Amino acid sequence: MSLEEWELKIQTENLVDFTSLAHHGCDIRSYYDAQDLMEYFNMLNGPTYKALIRHFWVRAQIYDRNVAKLEETEKVLIDPSMEGKTREEMGLEPFRCTEIRSSIMGIPVFISEEILSFVLRRASKGIFKGGIGNSKTSPWNEVVNQSMFGSSKKGTYSDLSMEKKMLLKIQNENLLPKGGGSDQPSLEHRIFLHFFIKKEKANVPRYIFKHLMKELKESQENKRCWVPYGRLISEILHQGGLLKALSKANFFTNKQFETETGKIINGRTLRNMNLIKKEAYTKLSTDLKEFNVVSNLMEDFPPICKQDPIDVQMMFILDHFETTGDVIRVEDVPETMYGGALPVAKSRKTKRKPLTKDDYLAEAPELKKAKKSKVASQEQLAQGASEANASGSVPEVVATEAVTSVAPFSDKVSKIPESTITISPSSSIDSDLDNIPLSQKYKINTKTPPKSKTFTPVYPAILKSIWEMSQKRIKICS
Q1: Are residues 390 and 256 in the same domain?
Q2: Which of 214, 350, 417, 424 is most buried when burial is the number of CB atoms within 10 A of its CB?
């Protein structure tokens, strides 16, 4: 694929507040209940990791029977004795189904209709109509016109009822998303909408998978920069364990992953679409809110950052270790407080400033700031040690070339388990992990890292009570 990561525009699906829509006279929950899709709409209330989607999309390939046949042909060309043998005898894995195959930071990621069915919590069963030939002469035209417009003749968008306009909008934003253009659907999309209107069960996982493959082919063959299903793919990565592995590494942040959440379709949307009058809109206490969405990164990370005093950081790190058994290095503490509201995705029709290569790869200002903060933290540690050595109440901070961790008691240091999952750059990347742009390739090593060399502790004294130190600081300040 000739597309670059920074050229892609990631689509984030919209949350749907069915309660707000029903309150304003547009009760459409029953249409999605009939399709067993309420679990899917609940799933949309989550984060989209745009940077991970970029990594996935530029490396994605469709693996189908044609590709499998090419594999067999190559084996026979290399060794003619393989002709007529099964894939297993050729040393190839058996072909099970069509898949979209890619990798993120060296981790293989496969998406199939079966995987989509699992994530949607909805069986891959129902009606599927694909490969329709001439849409002008198709008998489906009269069928869908009758269900959408109540007539055998095709109507216009303005002829649709409020409910059908909203069904079409949700289809264009979530189920079979469009990357811009008009809201006039194709015949295949109108057939899909017809199944929802008539509450006939459609094979939604298959429709989504076919649409995903179609958009991937458009990107590869016509260099289309638009990527659908950002939230759905993010959920697949989360349920596949990728986000858990990255969160254990404590290496990435929501800012690096360009994490965002989708807009909400509710009563305000009806007002903006001129489906209800401006004064008819009422804000409810039960309305969904974008800022309630929580990222899957650093779910159990304590509420500290480098802006906190060093003794406060140490107190939280100690408490986190005693509670969970997980070690947090001082340099892993984020520059700013983790959490807060995630950015909200813009409308698909909103004009966006193109992301350039320099903008995508530019991390120099942040890195310089991070280096200064790192040096400042080390100076704070040294200063705190020299001051507290005189009083005899200093925590033991074990410093090595690779790790700096807070150890409350010397006998507990040996009990701290080494991490079995580390993220290491490829050989072409600078060895300083803090200076690695996210666009570079990473791989996850599942092997236990070699033991680091033993270094002399920087501070000889051991902290008897962090609480004592905090109280002393408060007394001095007051």
Answers
A1: no
A2: 424
Three-state DSSP state, 72: helix
**pTM for this one?**
0.67
Q: How far apart are CA 195 and CA 171, in angstroms?
A: 12
Angular region, 106: left φ>0, alpha ψ -120 to 50, beta rest: left
H-helix or E-strand spanning residue 404: strand 404-407
**Residue 303 covered by a domain:** no
Residue 297: name the closest of 326, 345, 256 by CA: 256
pLDDT digits (tens, 9 = 90+) for 20-74: 999 999 999 999 999 999 999 999 988 899 989 999 999 999 999 999 999 999 9
Total domain count, the chain: 2
pLDDT digits (tens, 9 = 90+) for 405-415: 333 333 333 33
Alpha helices (H) in 204-335, listed in sequence order: 204-222, 230-239, 242-249, 267-272, 310-324
Structural contact between residues 250 and 332, judged by C-beta atoms closer than 8 angstroms: yes
Q: Does residue 280 share a domain with residue 317?
A: no
Distance CA 135, CA 264 (A): 33
Tokens of 439: 């666009």
Residue 228 located in a structural domain = yes
| 52 sits in which H/E element | helix 50-58
Q: Which amino acid is at 77?
A: L
The answer to whether residues 44 and 155 belong to one domain is yes
In terms of Cβ atoms closer than 10 Å to its own Cβ (0-12, 13-18, 19+), residue 60 is: buried
Instruction: Judge whether 19 and 286 are in contact, CB under 8 Å.
Output: yes
Q: Which two tokens stand for residue 374?
A: 């790192």
CA distance linking residue 168 with residue 189, whole number of Å: 9
Helices (H) and strands (E) in the chain, counts: 18, 13
CA dihedral 402, 407, 409, 413 (to 10 degrees): -40
Pairing of strands 226-227, 9-10: parallel
Domain that holds residue 164: 5-292
